[in-house]
Specification:
Number of helices of chain B: 11
Distance between the termini of chain B: 52 Å
Number of helices of chain A: 12
Shape of chain B: globular
Shape of chain A: elongated
Distance between the termini of chain A: 58 Å
Largest sheet of chain B: none
Oligomer: heterodimer
Strand content of chain A: under 5%
Number of strands of chain B: 0
Strand content of chain B: under 5%
Radius of gyration of chain A: 25 Å
Largest sheet of chain A: none
Largest interface: A-B, 42 and 50 residues
Radius of gyration of chain B: 19 Å
Structural class of chain B: mainly alpha
Structural class of chain A: mainly alpha
Chain lengths: ~240, ~200
């Protein structure tokens, strides 16, 4: 057994009590072995710390996103508002049913409607390490100064290539300005980020529907199916769109 | 846990089951746990006169610690999730305030190292601790980023508490033994990169 395998077995609790005693003795008697143990601990600890940082970053995005959207209510509030929520859900259900019954819109119309309802509104800023620059970029976005906003988002992306929010916004701005190829590039990058909630595939599909080149519809269909299968963000929307594609 | 289950609500049971799952189920569980009690942050700010960032740090530490304890079975359900989390959160807030008062900034985040060294005897711990203090953390981080994506993912999943068997399913390896061999090979590669002058 190599030293690393031996050390790994120790820390994973796979050694017998006698073997554990021998392990400890070896730390005392063989300096090179002690160095190996120290390396193992440092390496695993560094990986864990990076993982913790990554998770905290995701929690931060989640927290400030929710806060900005103001959609999440406290549990006690949910209880109090439950009758109203139920009523709203019933009304929404009726509206959705009526919309379906009165005839599906074309994919293009649906895409336009989604963009209008979700992207042509005042949007909140997600708190990240680049909060100040993001704030400025979002202000431009909310003032409908899209090319200027895009330049700001792209500048932030250059300094923080793994940032989620600027990529999402750069994609949305490109979509709104009709730069579909660029939007797709950003949404693909978004798809590849490990996030708890990732709309990358949905937005990618949306952009393909808008671009409407040969093969785009088929590709959008595949992406929407993945959104549903993988239970990604926007799966209800994906279901709706699939019906009209 | 059968005697303790009375304290857990159906919601708690479902959440715990998700946290003990793998892949996307676990991710959703973590997200759900975080968002459900995120109003603690506001309470921490009011109760301890903390900034939002400080309360957020205490809360996210609480959630990460809770996830680990739920997964490794340390949380036995002797109270509801909410009661337990609130207690942990309060402790984290007090720790944070104490740290702020004594201005004690650790050179390196030592929580994960302490957990590992806890397994060693006092003398063994002391030897390893001294050697660890000589580690070049920046270099280690940099070398870690030079490992391939597959290696990084393998090591990260293992550090995240997934067993080799679970990793074999997630990363589509044939067996847990293959995962272990690959994982150790990745660590060896990291060691070579780190030791290289």
């Amino acid at each position: 057994m190599s030293d690393l395998a031996y050390i790994d077995s120790y820390f994973k609790g796979e050694l017998s009590p006698e073997e554990r005693i021998k392990f400890e003795q070896r730390i005392h008697n063989v300096p090179a072995f002690a160095e190996e143990v120290a390396f193992y601990c440092s390496a695993v600890s560094t990986i864990k710390d990076q993982l913790v940082e990554e998770k905290k970053k995701q929690f931060r995005e989640l927290y400030y996103n929710d806060k900005n959207k103001n959609k999440k209510a406290r549990p006690s509030l949910v209880k109090k508002l439950w009758p109203y929520i139920t009523a709203a859900a019933v009304i929404t259900g009726i509206i959705v049913t009526l919309t379906i019954v009165t005839g599906p819109s074309s994919p293009q119309q649906m895409a336009d409607k989604y963009i209008k309802e979700h992207f042509e509104v005042q949007m909140g800023v997600t708190m990240t390490d680049n909060a100040d620059s993001l704030d400025a970029a979002m202000q431009l976005y909310n003032e409908n100064k899209l090319p200027e906003a895009l330049r700001k988002f792209e500048k932030i992306i250059q300094t923080d290539s793994i940032a989620y929010f600027p990529k999402k916004m750069a994609g949305i701005v490109s979509l709104r300005t009709g730069e579909y190829d660029k939007a797709i590039e950003y949404f693909i990058q978004l798809e590849n980020l490990q996030l708890y909630s990732n709309p990358g595939k949905l937005y990618h599909a949306l952009t393909l529907i808008k671009r409407n080149r040969a093969g785009d519809k088929e590709m959008a269909t595949q992406l929407l199916k993945q959104v549903i299968d993988l239970k990604l963000e926007g799966k209800e929307t994906a279901r709706k769109w699939l019906k009209s594609l | 846990m059968s005697n303790a289950q009375n304290f857990l609500t159906d919601f708690d049971e479902q959440l715990i089951s998700n946290l003990r799952g793998n892949g996307i189920i676990r991710s959703r569980g973590e997200e759900q746990l975080f968002t459900t009690y995120s109003y603690f942050i506001r309470e921490g700010m009011n109760k301890y006169t903390m900034s939002e960032d400080e309360a957020f740090d205490a809360y996210s530490d609480t959630i990460l610690s809770a996830i680990e304890n739920v997964r490794n079975g340390s949380f036995e359900g002797r109270s509801s999730l909410k009661t337990w989390l609130y207690q942990v959160f309060n402790n984290k807030c007090v720790d944070l305030l104490r740290k702020r008062a004594t201005n004690k900034n650790s050179v390196h985040q030592t929580a994960s190292i302490s957990d590992m060294l806890f397994q060693l005897s006092d003398t063994g711990k002391s030897i390893i601790q001294k050697l660890i203090e000589k580690s070049d953390w920046d270099m280690l981080k940099q070398k870690l980023s030079e490992l391939g994506d597959a290696c990084r993912r393998l090591l990260t999943l293992s550090a995240d508490g997934y067993t080799d068997k679970e990793i074999s399913t997630i990363m589509e390896y044939k067996t847990a033994d293959v995962v272990k061999t690959s994982r150790l090979r990745c660590l060896e590669k990291l060691r070579q990169l780190y030791k290289r002058p």
